[in-house]
Amino acid sequence: MGKYEIRAVGKVDLEKPASMQTNLHNRWHPDIPSVETIKDGETVKIECVDWTGGQIANNDSADDVRNIDLTRIHYLTGPFEIEGAEPGDLLLVEIMDVQPFQEQPWGFTGVFDKSNGGGFLDEIYPSAAKAIWDFEGIFCTSRHIPHVKFAGLIHPGILGCAPSAEVLETWNKREADLIAANKLDRQVALPPEPTNVHAGSADAELKEKVGKEGARTVPGRPEHGGNCDIKNLSRGSRVYLPVHVPGAKFSVGDLHFSQGDGEISFCGAIEMAGVITINFKVVKNGMADLGLKSPIYIPGPVEPQFGAGRHIYFEGFSVDEHGKQHYMDVAVAYRQTSLREYPWTSFGGGCIEYLRRFGYSDYQSYLLMSCAPIQGHIAGIVDIPNACTTLGLPMDIFDFDVSPSGPGKPLDMGTCAFETGVAEGRVAAGGKNSEHSFGGGLTYKDGPV
């Protein structure tokens, strides 16, 4: 039994702008000052704001999603110095608990407007939309997606240690190469951005340096993890993180009450502010002894249980919605597990089309697939030219029968939140056939092409 109260570190103020709180930051950089020291072997409670820094409100309008400032996001709590951690070690992070704040027992899921953030299916669903979720113990429900209730697999979307100067330079170089090689009509990476940089307690000179050099926190990266959005990194999980700087400089944030595999709508988990309880242990010389240069994790024992026979699985292949064949492209295939049926193809009708039979709109289904306990898998990547992926919808999250047993009976499902004056989101035909696919459009042959 515990003899002492668990120490709270990195406390946040939900009434104060995230950019004014010195124990938060929104860039990865080795020089951001540490906010506190944690002992090797110690368990602490760390408070976190939601990933938008409080930009999204509990209301029935998606104006805040449409107008979100994406230069003011991913505020992480930290960095924390871990006593004894040195480059070449591993930091063993054991997630003991994650909970929403008692004074804020709700979260949100969003579809970003295509012109401001977009998402995995923004060529089909370009409008801003939002669903608010209310928490009751381990369960959540939403007035914007009715007849659904499920237990959350609560977890952090982002955790990692600071990069060294050399690792940071590697990140910026390879992502700059990706941007230079881009042939797609979309952003493919985010370079360092001084606008609205927040570097904790850094002085003006250091803040300017972090703005010029600091890596954005949007993607996960192989050297340290970061924004991986792995739903099974929940209570009881153990994560082994490479250490690149003295003290490790660990940071955490972007807490999720629940998330489907893929988090496909970008703001696709049930995003929340809350408290995460973590135990830290330093594994000396762990990178060499265990042969690890990238994180690994062992899932915890806590997960909502849906029997193998209580899922409907939708298959997707690397043939896009316009009938164009792509080579072994799992991103194209996973899109097809999700999408509606189109009259110009001889196939189609993924999870969104299926849920339309019961009265859900495309946007309600898109939001639900992003945040509910959906199981996504790569089923086959050996049979050219088609990769095969699957998306598993748990039937027991609904309070009515959604099994494939005849024509659906539409119910009154209301609506999710849209912009002021908008009754329903737009559904577009999607991108035209192109030389380069959504997921495999950047190739290298003796350099960028």
TrEMBL record:
Domain of life of the source: Eukaryota
An example Gene Ontology molecular-function term: hydrolase activity, acting on carbon-nitrogen (but not peptide) bonds, in linear amides
Pfam families tied to this protein: FmdA_AmdA
InterPro entries for the chain: FmdA_AmdA, FormamaseFmdA
Protein's name according to its UniProt entry: Formamidase
Native organism: Xylaria hypoxylon
